[in-house]
Design a protein that fits this description.
This protein is α+β, with helices and mostly antiparallel strands and 384 residues long. 57% of the residues lie in helices and 13% in strands. It has helices at residues 101-105, 121-138, 146-158, 162-175, 178-199, 201-221, 227-248, 257-272, 280-292, 298-311, 316-345, 349-363, 369-382; strands at residues 4-9, 12-17, 22-25, 32-37, 40-45, 52-54, 57-59, 62-65, 69-72, 75-81.
């Protein structure tokens, strides 16, 4: 029984015999190839590396089983197989002036089944043999086999298109077996691993920047070891390890950081005596380091001092340090607001917003809240 493909274009319906392994429709870049697969046919571009517009979605190919229909590049294709399938009314396709490019070039490279008669059976065999020889010599690069889809996925990955590569592998895995299937699965795992690495690349950058800050802390404060500096160094190392130990265990851009920070902590652990209570000197150093070493974190500094004063009320050193830092902080805060005014004067509203965000996030003390709110309203008004 002759198998047929139904083609509907601009309301015109025709059936084309499908006796060989493939059929081509159209010429040039817009040509479509229909290839026989188990249980149906696969529609794909004739040009290597091209895609199809299938029901409004860009795909590498579309499989059709008996009775299934798809709108492919403006044509409706329906695989009838070898039996009669109830006719379906075509969905009108939008017309372009002068007809679509595919319509202008379209020609069918197969003859209608009505022209075939038993007397031409020998000629059909000759044509089929010739087609197979031509296919062998054509050296086509279009992915018609699972292995070709795997090769295409590798090329897409090299071109930094991991999502496309995964889509190609999905086609390969439909029919791949043996070594080809194992290669496809291995490549799929590699692509997903790389995508995870890329998604956490910024976290790895942050881990490296903070690790460099810790090593700079050691150079600045621990050239001559002291208990307050050693305690703060160990505390900062512990915070870094809590944030990044898991990431540094596998991410290629951060693997080298973990031993450096662990060794830094070990170098100063004995002097720091972690686990013993803080003394006033320890707390004062930690608070001042938050203002000198990093972007001025007045809120965190006050929290460290206030926590100590809660258990050591009236401690003279910590109380005096707190008063001094609040006074100095007020001068610094007012300078920050003047810097915001300078940004507004040169129409840098985004910079002003960023400065206020950092100020609020790191340093804003309750005594400064009213002035901060007024400046924030001014910035928002300037931004429209």
């Amino acid at each position: 029984m002759t198998e047929e493909l139904e083609i509907v274009e601009h309301g015109q319906r025709r059936r084309v015999a499908f006796d060989g392994d493939r059929l081509e429709i159209g010429d040039g870049d817009g040509a479509i190839r229909v290839v026989r697969i188990r249980g149906g046919v696969r529609v794909e571009p004739a040009r290597p590396g091209a895609t199809l517009s299938v029901d409004g979605e860009e795909l590498f190919c579309k499989d059709l089983r008996t009775g299934e229909r798809a709108d492919v590049d403006g044509m409706q294709l329906r695989w009838l197989g070898g039996g009669e399938v109830a006719a379906a009314a075509p969905t009108p396709a939008p017309r372009e002036p002068g007809g679509s490019a595919l319509a202008r070039k379209a020609r069918l490279r197969a003859k209608s089944s009505s022209s075939l008669v038993p007397a031409l059976a020998i000629a059909a065999v000759v044509v089929a043999v010739g087609f197979l020889v031509l296919n062998r010599l054509s050296d086509s690069t279009w992915p018609q086999t699972p292995q070709h889809y795997v090769d295409l996925a590798r090329a897409q990955l090299e071109n930094h298109r991991p999502e496309r590569a995964l889509a190609s592998l999905a086609f390969a895995l439909r029919e791949a077996t043996g070594e080809t299937r194992e290669a496809a699965l291995a490549l799929e795992r590699d692509i997903k691993r790389r995508m995870v690495e890329q998604s956490r690349a910024q976290e790895a950058i942050a881990a490296r920047e903070e690790a460099q800050s810790l090593l700079a802390f050691e150079r600045r404060y621990l050239a001559t070891p002291s208990r307050p500096a050693a305690r703060e160094c160990v505390r900062l190392c512990d915070a870094w390890l809590a944030d990044y130990r898991e990431l540094c265990g596998w991410h290629p851009d951060a693997k080298d950081l973990l031993p450096n920070i662990e060794q830094l902590r070990d170098r100063h652990a004995a002097t720091a005596a972690p686990g013993t209570p803080d003394e006033a000197e320890d707390v004062v150093f930690a608070a001042e380091a938050l203002l000198r070493f990093r972007w001025r974190q007045y809120r965190a500094a006050m929290e460290r001092l206030d926590a100590f004063l809660a258990t050591h009320p009236g401690d003279a050193l910590v109380t005096a340090t707190r008063a001094r830092l609040v006074e100095e902080g007020g001068d610094w805060f007012r300078q920050c607001l003047r810097d915001v005014d300078t940004m507004l004067a040169r129409k840098d509203v985004s910079g002003a917003r960023r400065a206020l965000h950092n100020l609020e996030h790191f340093s804003l003390l309750p005594a400064w809240q009213q002035s901060f709110d007024a400046k924030q309203r001014q910035v928002e008004a300037a931004g429209g």
